[in-house]
Design a protein that fits this description.
mainly alpha; 0% strand
């Protein structure tokens, strides 16, 4: 073997080695780029899904708030209606007391004491009605608060606490 053929063989071998090295590097870069593109696609999909879940949860929370507000408004309406009914009853009680006083004045002293007792009893009924109306309003508010909290807790638990 001559020196020339050895150098030529070495040069061919070096060229083959360099070519394989370049080919391997190109394949590595191609695989890396493909993996990077797949990763970015997965990240974009995950971010989109996370936004979708967040929007859904926000809508559910808003639905709970709207339902709570509807219940609060209904309770307020019921309280106003009850107050109007109570005021109407008070008006009727006042009229009944006035009639009883007029009858007692006409009938004399004997019915005066009975009319006074009846008037006091009607006033007690009026006061009880007023107090029960207030109590019903408080109970309605507590019921609304409880139902809103239960809805929110249910929503929170369905979302895994997120």
């Amino acid at each position: 073997m001559s020196l020339r053929s050895a150098v030529t063989g070495a040069a061919v071998l070096a060229a083959l080695f360099i070519g394989l090295q370049m080919y391997g590097s190109a394949q590595h870069k191609k695989g890396y780029d493909k993996a990077q593109a797949e990763y970015m696609t997965a990240v974009a999909h995950a971010e989109g899904r996370a936004r979708q879940i967040e929007q859904q949860k926000q809508k559910e929370v808003e639905d709970v708030r709207a339902e709570y507000q509807k219940r609060v408004d209904a309770a307020a309406g019921a309280a106003v209606s009850a107050r109007a009914d109570s005021d109407g009853l008070r008006g009727k009680l006042t009229a009944a007391n006035d009639r009883a006083a007029a009858q007692a004045a006409r009938a004399g002293r004997a019915l005066d004491e009975n009319a006074r007792i009846a008037a006091e009893l009607r006033n007690v009924v009026g006061l009880c009605t007023s107090r029960y109306t207030e109590l019903a309003g408080v109970a309605d508010r507590y019921r609304g608060d409880l139902m809103a909290l239960q809805s929110y807790a249910k929503l929170f638990m369905q979302g895994g606490g997120k």
